[in-house]
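QA checklist item 7 of 12: single-chain prediction sanity check.
[x] sequence parsed
[x] length recorded as 212
[x] structure emitted
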Amino acid sequence: MQTKSRRPLFIGAGLFAAATGIAVAIWVSNAGPGTAGECPARTEASTAVDAAAGGELAALLPSTSWRNFADLTFIDATGAERTLADFAGKKLLVNFWATWCAPCREEMPDLDALQLRYGGKQFEVVAISLDMGSDGPVAAQAFLDEIGAVNLALYADPSYKVFERLRNEAVTVGLPATLLLDEEGCEISVLQGPAHWDTEDGYRVIEALLAV
């Protein structure tokens, strides 16, 4: 278990401009064709995680499409463009949320606690805000500050193109949505809707993911 502190964030006029300028690039990057089948089938891994998913995580579904999300594009707190490939070598819990989504807001403290408990060289919670427009990342950071979520870094897609890609690839139809990915950005499991991750049910799932 590793305690993490928030990295310095530089939100303000600079990020307004960066978010607006980068939105077009994100839109293009995430607008490509579906990526189903681009990863090798990891049936044993998805089955192992599925076997651990019960109670609060009973709705977690094993992948059958083997999609690769390494090229998923968004921005960080400085406005710099990032992709999930930047986290290569780590198992990932990628959560898509927005401040206007009540279940998302309820879920964020659990994800913050999960990052505190498991975050490190082998695992990362990547929570991507889909609040739209140049002020979207600012609203997301304000909410994280309000609830004292000091372990989650701010990531955002103010273009909302990430969600359109997820919808087009039949990953999800609403928020929140969560992907469990392997070290190469390949899909292991998908959860549509919220969950209480900071529970024994959540711990079993993450520990199963780390073990595969």
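[x] summary fact logged: Residues 52 and 176 are 21 Å apart (CA to CA).
[ ] second reviewer sign-off
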